[in-house]
Specification:
This protein is of the alpha/beta class. The protein contains nine helices and 14 strands. It folds into two domains: 7-182 and 218-245, Rossmann fold, CATH 3.40.50.720; 190-215 and 250-289 and 306-329, UDP-galactose 4-epimerase, domain 1 (Alpha-Beta Complex), CATH 3.90.25. The protein is globular, with a radius of gyration of 19 Å.
Length: 330
């Protein structure tokens, strides 16, 4: 797809991943419209984009169907990242996942259908759609898909909706099933949680679960490289193409605790787990995750950082951000 006259809509563009994607698209001289309700995103994340004449920010919610139709406008490519990102929230408030993930995606797809103009949609899905997979690394054709969290369930529902809408509208879809994405501007997840805990108590760190949970971690820069490949024709199928996006290694939570402590220059942190061996961090937590990324590698994408390297880089970035924020408040 040539960049000339290409207008892109990024839902959730003020969030962690969305703001990084927005900046990289603008670097390619692409017109970008960001639509975000600022529930988990922040205008601060878009401070670099604000001065670019190709950028437009619209504050609004995908649950508002009229606003969704209006902001879609003539955008021929949509990066759909808007969602409730807190996986563990589902145990207490599944309604948020249903509305912000499933209902919001339905509204967006309906707006695309009613516009009735050729559209390409890149949907940010998740490794949690696989549930507790019996095949590790897990390929895209693994099944049955049995999520164990409402987050994973609603994301899987979104995948099914996008697929069905390719049959009733001029729509083509790429689904990215991401491993755990980490890096600067991230306001949730294990690294961010550990930093907050160590600020409160630099001598002791509580680890949810037994600490042996082992997953793949992907740095935000590698994540955005994958998104940018969708600007080329090679990744697009006739209707729907799913791709796993992750690293070929795993990092366990106890290792992350050690890396974060090092990044915060804390030498004698006592780590305490909340569960016995085999215990989950929370209901719906997948204990082991690693994706088979062979399909995406054949299309020319390979992560530059291994899982541990991604965690280390992200920890350093987030510690600097937190220290800067504290300094500015003093």
């Amino acid at each position: 797809m040539p960049n000339d006259n290409l207008r892109v809509l990024v839902t959730g563009g003020a969030g962690f991943i969305g703001s990084h994607l927005t900046n990289r698209l603008l670097e390619r001289n692409i017109d970008v419209v960001v639509f975000d309700n600022l529930s988990s995103g922040s205008k601060t994340n878009l401070r670099e984009a604000k001065s670019n004449s190709r950028f437009r920010f619209v504050e609004g919610d995908l649950l508002d169907f009229h606003a969704t139709r209006e902001v879609l406008g003539d955008c021929g490519l949509v990066f759909h990242l808007a969602a409730d990102p807190e996986v563990r929230l589902g145990a207490q408030n599944p309604d948020s996942h249903f509305k912000q993930n499933l209902q919001a995606t339905y509204n967006l797809l309906e707006a695309i259908r009613l516009r009735n103009s050729p559209t390409r949609l890149v949907f940010a899905s998740t490794s949690t759609v696989y549930g507790e997979a019996s095949i590790i690394p897990t390929p895209e054709n693994y099944g049955p898909l049995l999520p164990i969290s409402t987050y994973g369930a609603t994301k899987l529902g979104c995948e099914a909706l996008t697929s069905s809408y390719t049959q009733i509208s001029p729509l083509r879809v790429i689904i990215f099933r991401f491993a755990n994405v980490v890096g600067s501007r991230s306001g949730h997840g294990v690294i961010f949680d550990f930093i907050k805990k160590l600020i409160v108590n630099p001598n002791e760190l509580e680890v949810l679960g037994d600490g042996t949970q082992s997953k793949s971690y992907l740095h935000i820069s590698d994540c955005i490289d994958a998104f940018l490949l969708t600007l080329n024709e090679d990744l697009w199928g006739k209707t729907v193409e799913p791709y796993n996006i992750g690293t070929e290694q795993q990092t366990n939570v106890l290792t992350i605790a050690r890396i974060v402590a090092q990044a915060m220059r804390q030498q004698n942190v006592v780590v305490k787990t909340t569960a016995r061996a085999g215990g989950r961090a929370w209901p719906g937590d997948v204990r082991v995750m690693q994706l088979d990324i062979g399909k995406m590698k054949k299309r020319g994408w390979t992560p530059k950082m291994r899982s541990d390297e991604a965690v280390r880089r992200a920890s350093e970035e987030l510690v600097r951000e937190v220290e800067t924020s504290i300094s500015n408040q003093q």
